[in-house]
Amino acid sequence: MELKLKKYKEQLQDWPQEGHHIMAQYDDEKIIVYQSYRKEIGEFAIKNQYFGGAFSLERMTWIKPNFLWMMYRNGWGTKEGQEYVLAIHLKMDAFKRYLENAVYSTYNDRLEITREEWQNQVKESSVRLQWDPDHDPFGGKLERRAIQIGLRNDFIKTFAKEDIILIEDISDFVNEQYQFVLNNDVESLMIPEEKPLLFDDENLNKKLRLK
Fold this sequence. Notes:
By secondary structure, this protein is an alpha+beta fold. It is 33% helix and 29% strand.
């Protein structure tokens, strides 16, 4: 694996406890996002290093840069149809482009536009943005918010192929670490090293509620 790993307990000391944060493993060139699929889609992606075959370009696909939030959603790779856990090394400029074009999936007053304007934006946009409660390794809900991004139309087409640097199958790693979770052995739990992501573009940070 090319993922950089670090003990969960060590990282916990440095992580923000609340607020909206894109927790991720990244550098200037790339960011890691996670998805889970059934075997047929996962095997195709690993072998060919792009998404095709049974992967649908017609449905919205959701990417998650936060490892533990992905583990919450896929039950550490135990949920049916989510056994293949993939770490997708994505071009940072592509990830930023998604967010620049994203529209919030639910309306609230902080958007500073009318509900009607928001509804029109949703219809026209091919990228959805959603903040959900982050979770600890045991599925406990946290104050901190985790991001997920939904892609469709032209965005899913570029995501599926040219935006990708590398696709890694991390299913075995996930299963190994899940054993520590089941045994309540937090001291031994290793996860990808993550830190909050902030952009140079202050308008984008403001749109995303990042601080």
